[in-house]
């Protein structure tokens, strides 16, 4: 593994590693259009760009640039999302990596130098990224950090006989035994109560203890309830006593052919889901959705299965992730996350939980 000091000696004199000033954003967008993806949504929607990357507190855009010192040309960019941009009172925010790209003619190792510089320049308690491409996986793994995979769970609408979005692999036979067990949870029957006002969400709940250090109640509201494009809904898992035990954040997505529900974030440990099969089926029927898709890492898998969720892996099911444009295929989501001080995977006293809504894995592609 090549360390920061070595890369600093190689490239520190030639390249200026700096945050993107407000008046430099046009150069960054041109770089994205040329070297990342032509017509990328951030180059077409200033509203989305500003919501995700404009840092008014620090008067900058949250990109770190590698600019050649003599010409000023940009040779690399690293875009990031700070959870504290949603709530500046978060003391130990996470820095989620987004677009990370160097030019084809950039010297070897400049991309890693850029990433290691971000770790030193950005004031964050955690660093990570969700949905890494192959180049990023190689760079992160070679640097000694672990890349994990999100588990992909799903639940089908039991009232449907035909599916247009989801599909079955050839020779696949549905195993409904686990759903039958979930439908009869031994007298435990829980509800999903939609949260219709922020005061109800901001009150004290037993699930508050599961909010990670880099998030807050305000974070969830700013990230989801105030999203400039997507409409997210908040649901509480209500126990038999009526007390809210967990919180689910989801959105409905789809095409002209059909609709699906994507759970993008969760506050709880997962075991609270036992007894919710009927409530989820009611939600599926009410939204006329084919299935619920749930990418997660760190929840109680037994809790998800007891609610009627099944793992896509090994099921023979195709549960699409992408709708902009629609792609009828399974997609694996990976991530890494480590604490800033130790540069280790995670503190052993904390429980690692990651969801699709973290980072920019649930971002519009078409506007």
Notes on the protein architecture:
The protein is of the alpha+beta class and 367 residues long. It contains 11 helices and 18 strands. The chain has helices at residues 4-11, 25-36, 41-44, 46-53, 110-121, 134-142, 177-183, 198-202, 217-225, 277-287, 301-306, and strands at 15-20, 54-55, 60-68, 74-82, 94-102, 126-130, 148-149, 151-156, 167-168, 191-194, 233-238, 244-255, 258-267, 291-297, 310-311, 317-318, 334-339, 354-355. The strands form 3 sheets. Strands 1, 2, 3, 4, 5, 6, 7 and 17 form an 8-stranded mixed sheet that branches. Strands 8, 10, 11, 12, 13, 14, 15 and 18 form an 8-stranded mixed sheet that branches. Strands 9-16 form a two-stranded antiparallel sheet. It starts with a helix and ends in a 12-residue tail after the last strand.
Distance between the termini: 41 Å
Radius of gyration: 22 Å
Taken in chain order, the helices and strands follow as HEHHHEEEEHEHEEEHEHHEEEHEHEEEE
Overall mean pLDDT stands at 91
Biggest pleated sheet: 8 strands, mixed
The overall strand count is 18
Q: Which percent range fits the helix content?
A: 10-25%
Short description:
The chain has 367 residues and is α+β, with helices and mostly antiparallel strands. 25% of the residues lie in helices and 28% in strands.
């Amino acid at each position: 593994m090549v360390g920061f000091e070595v890369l600093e000696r190689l490239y520190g004199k030639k390249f200026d590693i700096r945050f993107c000033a407000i008046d430099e954003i046009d150069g960054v967008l041109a770089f994205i259009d040329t070297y990342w993806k032509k017509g990328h949504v951030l180059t077409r929607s200033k509203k989305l760009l500003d919501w995700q990357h404009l840092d008014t507190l620090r008067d900058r855009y949250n990109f770190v640039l590698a600019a050649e010192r003599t010409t000023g040309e940009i040779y690399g960019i690293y875009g990031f999302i700070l959870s504290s941009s949603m709530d500046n009172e978060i003391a130990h925010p996470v820095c989620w990596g987004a677009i990370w790209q160097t030019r084809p003619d950039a010297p070897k190792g400049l991309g890693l130098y850029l990433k290691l510089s971000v770790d030193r320049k950005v004031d964050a308690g955690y660093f990570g990224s969700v949905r890494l491409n192959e180049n990023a996986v190689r760079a992160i793994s070679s640097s000694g950090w672990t890349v994990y995979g999100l588990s992909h769970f799903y639940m089908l609408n039991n009232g449907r006989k035909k599916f247009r979005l989801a599909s079955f692999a050839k020779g696949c036979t549905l195993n409904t035994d686990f759903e039958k067990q979930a439908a009869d949870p031994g007298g435990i029957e829980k509800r999903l109560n939609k949260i219709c006002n922020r005061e109800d969400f901001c009150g004290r709940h037993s699930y508050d203890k599961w909010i990670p250090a880099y998030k807050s109640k305000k974070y969830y509201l700013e990230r989801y309830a105030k999203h400039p494009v997507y409409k997210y809904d908040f649901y509480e898992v209500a126990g038999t006593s009526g007390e809210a035990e967990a919180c689910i954040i989801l959105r409905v997505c789809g095409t002209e052919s059909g609709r699906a529900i994507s759970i993008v974030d969760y506050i709880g440990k997962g075991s609270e889901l036992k007894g919710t099969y009927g409530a989820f089926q009611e939600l599926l029927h009410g939204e006329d959705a084919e299935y619920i898709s749930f990418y997660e890492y760190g929840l109680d898998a037994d809790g998800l299965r007891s609610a009627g969720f099944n793992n896509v892996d090994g099921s023979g099911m195709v549960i699409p992730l992408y709708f902009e444009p629609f792609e009828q295929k399974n997609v694996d989501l990976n991530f890494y996350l480590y604490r800033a001080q130790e540069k280790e995977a995670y503190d052993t006293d904390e429980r690692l939980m990651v969801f699709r809504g973290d980072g920019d894995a649930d971002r519009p592609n078409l506007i």
